[in-house]
Amino acid sequence: MSVVSYTAQMKQTYYRAMRSILTATVVAVLSVACSEENEPQSKNSRGSWGSRELPVTTAQIQRTPLIDTIKSVGTARAQQSVTLYPESAGVVSYAKLAPDMPVSKGETLLKLDDRDQTLAVRQAEVELQEAKRMLQRYVSLNATEANIPQSTIDTAQSGVDLAEIRLSQTQVELSRRQITAPFSGRIGITDVEIGDRVDTSTMVTTLDDRSVLLVDFTVPESFIGKIVEGLQVHARQWESPDDNAMGTIVAVDSRVDSSTRAFRARAALDNSSDNLRPGMAFEIDASIAKGDYLSVPELAVQWGADGPYIWSAIDDRAQRSPVEMVRRVDGRMLIRGDVKEGQRVILEGIQSVRPGMKINDLSATQISAKPKADDAASNRQGS
Question: According to the model, what pLDDT value does residue 31 have?
């Protein structure tokens, strides 16, 4: 074959290939044009996305309270607590000091040997009676014109006054020979026994009124005005978190600690069951309501170039609704936006959703079918 004939043959092959390519291109263009002509008719007659229904699951928009929880720790102490010491020195003649024994206010817990003090009181009483008798005698004589000098009567009156003071002093000395309970409570452990010699530096025992325990704890300064008297709190034992107790704020400090930027609050815990003890460590939880917000499952919130949004199911159509996120609470997202409580939001199938797309809400179908099934079951039972 000559070079000329080979070249001519190659040209023919090239021209045939080009005709085939042009033919295929024209057919493709015509097909696209036909589909574009037909598609508007479908959109106009059946909606923006035709008769297709995207199956989705939805959930309702709910109203959820936003609650701030403050956690702090503190150590409990008795509502009233005192360490008891003798007011004078002496030998113990009586003691009622069994550990953890309940006592009442005014009950005698300990006595010292008081024989000398008792005699002194009796002597003072006799002296007072004699002073009063002498004064009465002078007054009576003066009434019969005995002309008792006024100075004598005044001296007798002074004798009565001094005798009364002396009696009071001896009674005070006698009262210092015993210890009484200043309030109702329970006795602590003691090392003092009958026959022991004690003085004013000897610690006899402790007395606690633990019917109510007080727990002091610190709160960040940002909660000033929110932690107030009367607020309910939960208290959990540090070593036993499952044991909870309810408490009430009974005092709030008037100043903030400049080094910690926190202030002190005090909670009172009811211990009428007597299961708690002074000195226990507690974790205090205080809940502060900050209002109600609309909320959706976290899965419903999507992110776009303009921020977070949700897909709402309105009249079986998908609608894109921008929202503002407030906070996550127990698997839900608190939101603000142009949405309403009870409105349904799309959860599953969300990747294929487009604005205006017709959807088939499987969740709503199941919800509406359940009452019918229940009614049918009731009818079968009735028949």
Answer: 43
E strand intervals along 135-227? 178-180, 185-187, 197-198, 205-220
DSSP state of 283: E
**Phi, psi at 94, each rounded to 5°:** -155, 135
Dihedral-angle region of residue 292 (phi above 0 means left; psi in -120 to 50 means alpha; beta otherwise): beta
- Gap between the Cα atoms of 206 and 82, Å rounded: 6
Residues 6+ apart with CB under 8 A from 330: none
- Alpha carbon dihedral 31, 32, 37, 43, in 10-degree steps, equals 120
Number of Cβ atoms within 10 Å of the Cβ of 72: 21
Instruction: State the amino acid at position 212 in one-letter form.
Output: V
pLDDT along the chain (383 residues), means of 10: 44 54 45 42 42 83 88 94 96 95 96 96 96 90 79 90 96 95 95 95 96 95 90 87 85 94 95 91 88 89 90 88 89 89 88 87 62 51 53
Report the C-alpha gap between 296 and 251 in whole angstroms: 38
Among the listed residues 285, 286, 249, the one whose alpha carbon sits nearest the alpha carbon of residue 267: 249
DSSP state of 349: S
Cβ neighbors of 72 (< 8 A, separation 6 or more) are 217, 218, 219, 283, 284, 286
Cβ-Cβ contacts under 8 Å for 38 (sequence gap 6 or more): none
Is residue 166 classed as helix, strand or coil in its secondary structure?
helix
Q: In Å, how far from its chain's centre is CA 110?
A: 43
